[in-house]
TrEMBL record:
InterPro entries (UniProt xref): Pur-cyt_permease, Pur-cyt_permease_Fcy2/21/22
Membrane topology classification: Multi-pass membrane protein
Secreted recorded as keyword: no
Domain of life: Eukaryota
Family to which the UniProt record says this protein belongs: Belongs to the purine-cytosine permease (2.A.39) family.
Localization terms from the record: Membrane
Protein name: Purine-cytosine permease
Keywords: Membrane, Transmembrane, Transmembrane helix, Transport
GO annotation, cellular component aspect: fungal-type vacuole membrane; plasma membrane
GO molecular function: transmembrane transporter activity
Length: 382
């Protein structure tokens, strides 16, 4: 989150860092509770959900404290285990998955737009932290290759995991009441456990092992949340640099753990809805960052000596104005559980709305940022 200073300037970049801290803690809470539900099912309810969440958070914190290289080693190999586990779950669950017909009409179209917006927001949430994990790459590495690997690394798993998630979620509509009861008891973990429970005792025991692997796969996310959180805090103020980064990681982890345990029965759904709204600032932010880079800094024209010198950074007028307009338009076009904006209502079916937030935000940000940034660079030369 230091890089936005080269577009937004010194002070607005601090606000963006705070927003990103909310994102990191929020998604960490959702991940911790989800993972805890799976461990809770593994123990057949004998291990309290609070303890399950505690175990997962501690492991995630340990990897976050071990640092950059440990995170890379873990992520480099853990995805193989997770992919195999997901394939096994899909294989055993195939006979139980329910083919839910796709709806038709304006309401269904509105739901698709709203869901797509959430998915886009979740994907681009990687952009505010991605630079934290590329600092040791060789300087002569192809930028095209880096971008290509990053895109594939985001896109392919996202599609496959969401297809599997939708399939597992369809079990709640199964004619077998056991699946609905399992979901009420232990959420997603209960559904995964019920898949294996429908087979022999040996398969059921093997399913427990798979559930453990899936539960601890969340560590890859939690570790990133708490590792990047420490870096984000230091962007807010120079005074924060006086405190060792691992302290901020510990503080953020404590907040994440406390909220996860305190709200383990209701907070996951609340935070998911809240974070769906929070992601509406990410599309304008990412659009502005990409416009700045590809139009004015294509040859990596960043003065690396200016990152902590406000007098050498842009004032951020163009970026701030474009960001505010884009974000406000996004909120007005929102169609989510907690809020349906007036623009979304106006173009959507009766009783709901059609979410065109990211489309309108992209157009508005581009139309506002480019001419203002041209003026800003001409006026102050930075």
């Amino acid at each position: 989150m230091v890089i936005p200073r080269y577009v937004f300037g010194w002070w607005p970049a601090k606000v963006l860092a705070i927003l990103n801290i909310v994102n990191q803690i929020g998604w960490g809470i959702v991940s911790a509770i989800t993972s805890g539900e799976i461990l809770y099912d593994v123990a057949d309810g004998n291990m309290p959900l609070a303890i399950s969440i505690l175990v997962v958070c501690i492991v995630g914190l340990l990897f976050g404290l071990l640092g950059y290289r440990a995170l890379h080693i873990f992520d480099r190999y853990s995805w193989i285990v997770v992919a195999i586990s997901f394939i096994i779950i899909a294989g055993f669950g195939g006979r139980h998955f329910v083919n839910v017909p796709m709806g038709v009409g304006s309401s269904e179209r509105a739901n698709v737009f709203a869901f797509a917006t959430v998915i886009i927001g979740y994907e681009v949430a990687w952009m505010p932290v991605v630079a934290d994990y590329g600092v040791y790459m060789h300087s002569d590495m192809s930028t095209t290759a880096t971008a290509g690997y990053t895109l594939l690394g985001l896109l392919v798993p996202q599609i496959l995991v969401e297809l599997l998630g939708a399939a597992i979620g369809s079990l709640t509509m199964s004619s077998d009441a056991e699946f609905a009861a399992a979901y009420d008891r232990a959420g997603m973990g209960g559904l995964i456990g019920a898949i294996f429970n429908s087979y022999s005792a040996h398969v059921y025991g093997f399913g427990k092992f798979i559930e453990v692997l899936v539960a601890f796969s969340i560590v890859a996310i939690l570790a990133v949340n708490v590792y990047s959180l420490g870096l984000n805090v230091q962007v807010i103020s120079r005074k924060m640099l006086a405190v060792p980064r691992f302290v901020w990681t510990l503080v953020g982890s404590a907040a994440l753990l406390s909220c996860s345990i305190a709200g383990r029965n209701v907070l996951a759904e609340i935070m998911t809805n809240f974070l769906s709204i929070c992601t509406y600032w990410l599309v304008p932010f990412c659009n502005i960052m990409m416009l700045e880079h590809f139009i004015w800094r294509r040859d990596w024209d960043y003065d690396v000596t200016a990152w902590e010198n406000p007098s050498q950074l842009p004032y951020g007028i163009a970026a701030t104005v474009a960001f505010l307009v884009g974000t406000v338009l996004s909120l007005l076009c929102m169609n989510q559980v907690w809020w349906v904006g007036p623009i979304a209502k106006a173009i959507g079916p009766s009783g709901s709305g059609t979410d065109i937030s990211w489309i309108l935000a992209l157009c508005a940000c581009t139309g506002i940022f480019i001419p203002l940034r041209m003026w800003e660079r001409k006026r102050w030369g930075r």
